[in-house]
């Protein structure tokens, strides 16, 4: 995958396939520790120990439409290529967390990509699900929560193109206005 936002999209789609009603995505930039941490947590069906051990195997997938599952192995490879790591924590009936740690200064770190665009597309394409995006850097924090957006919009669906565009611009501008370092 060309950038981190595509990894986020892929793992979030896995969460949706696992029946998650809520997907939380957190990007954390720690300049002092030279780390960028991406965490995707869901309340989907989770994985038992047996499936969890196979999750990073590219030749294992729970899908019946194809024989390989490259999302988690590629995400792990991207993180480890920078000297970082990937951890999966999961409990059946509770949900799953995927935590990728990247060394920010590594020349092998993929670019962040369009994370605001991915968040807004996930929300627009899955209006029956809730998404929380949290961006932390330095002393700044920004939280975008589709539950709040739905409360404000009332009957207007998140899937409306103008709403998707608005959500992307809102996330983009707020992060830029906060002067939070880029991922």
Describe the structure.
Helix content is 37%, strand content 26%. It is of the alpha+beta class. It has one domain (4-177): Histidine kinase-like ATPase, C-terminal domain (Heat Shock Protein 90). It has a six-stranded mixed sheet with strand order 3-4-2-1-5-6. The longest helix is centred in the C-terminal third of the chain and has 17 residues, at 161-177. It is globular, with a radius of gyration of 16 Å.
Number of domains: 1
Rg measurement, Å: 16 Å
Residues in helices, as a percent range: 25-40%
Output the strand order for the largest sheet.
3-4-2-1-5-6
Structural class: alpha+beta
Q: What general form does the structure show?
A: globular
- Please report the number of helical segments: 6
CATH class: Alpha Beta
Q: What's the CATH H-level superfamily name?
A: Histidine kinase-like ATPase, C-terminal domain
Total count of strands: 6
Helix-strand pattern: HEEHHEEHEEHH
CATH topology: Heat Shock Protein 90
Q: Please give the CATH architecture.
A: 2-Layer Sandwich
Extract low-pLDDT stretches: 63-68
The average pLDDT value, as a whole number, equals: 89
Biggest beta sheet attributes: 6 strands, mixed
Give the percentage of residues in beta strands.
Answer: 25-35%
Straight-line N-to-C gap: 16 Å
